[in-house]
Amino acid sequence: MIVTVDVDKIYPNGCHALKKVTTNIQRGEVVVIIGPSGSGKSTYLRTLNQLETITSGEIIVDGVKMYGGETNINKLRENIGMVFQSFNLFPHLSVKENVMLAPLKVTGRSKAEVILEAEALLTRVGLAEKMDIYPSHLSGGQQQRVAIARALAMKPDMMLFDEPTSALDPEMVGEVLDVMKSLAAEGMTMVVVTHEMGFANEVADRVIFMEDGALLVDDIPENIFGKVANHPRLQKFLSNIL
Question: Which partner for 59 in 31, 66, 155, 216 could form a disulfide, CB atoms 3.0-4.6 Å apart?
Fold first, then answer.
């Protein structure tokens, strides 16, 4: 579903954020990206929908070259949902209106249809009783679940999560991870940058370990978190956080 080949990202200040990152993400896979701060995890994730442009290399999504001369990036993005660290909800819109906004403006679906879909999505993420209130009246965990519902409202083929629990109080992390686990169980293709090692071990089909812009390890969780993890930098990273 996603192929990245020798992806490099060099910022104008000379920072070499990504170095020849090559991997292949299959439809229905859950791939979790881990690594120390500044390792290039979020930069790499953001290249997958061109929120960050690359310096060189190639990214192919569903057979479409992202940097092909005739590629409509906005159309490509419609199939790629994204959830950020910050919730980015519109404070002047109700929870349901936040979820409805993009489908109404982009897809051309009828308002009646979008209302029903928004209500179903909010029920799915456990917020059926919060549809008509405003984001300021929600906890951080609830706001992040609204953000997930909003991304799902576009009916994406895949979801990108950029450290979705890092801004939450510890007590709220579980409710967001539970929603993500349910998406994974339903077969959603997911790429997740996170520091939640328990989630990575439990849910991921593959775990990618990055440092200094390079992809150092790409393996199944059993090998990443088990005794056979044989990359010294990965071992050091895990020993510091587990």
Answer: 66
Predicted confidence (pLDDT) per residue in 145-190, tens digit: 999 999 999 999 999 999 999 989 888 999 999 999 999 999 999 9
Label residue 70 by pLDDT band (50, 70, 90).
confident
Tokens of 88: 């980015």
Please write down the HEC assignment for all residues of the chain: CEEEEEEEEECCCCCEEEEEEEEEECCCCEEEEECCCCCCHHHHHHHCCCCCCCCEEEEEECCEECCCCCCCHHHHHCCEEEECCCCCCCCCCCHHHHHHHHHHHHHCCCHHHHHHHHHHHHHHCCCHHHCCCCHHHCCHHHHHHHHHHHHHCCCCCEEEEECCCCCCCHHHHHHHHHHHHHHHHCCCEEEEECCCHHHHHHHCCEEEEEECCEEEEEECHHHHHCCCCCCHHHHHHHHHHC
User: Is 208 exposed, middle or buried, given 0-12, 13-18 or 19+ CB atoms closer than 10 A?
Assistant: buried
| Helix 95-102 with 140-152: angle, nearest 10 deg | 30
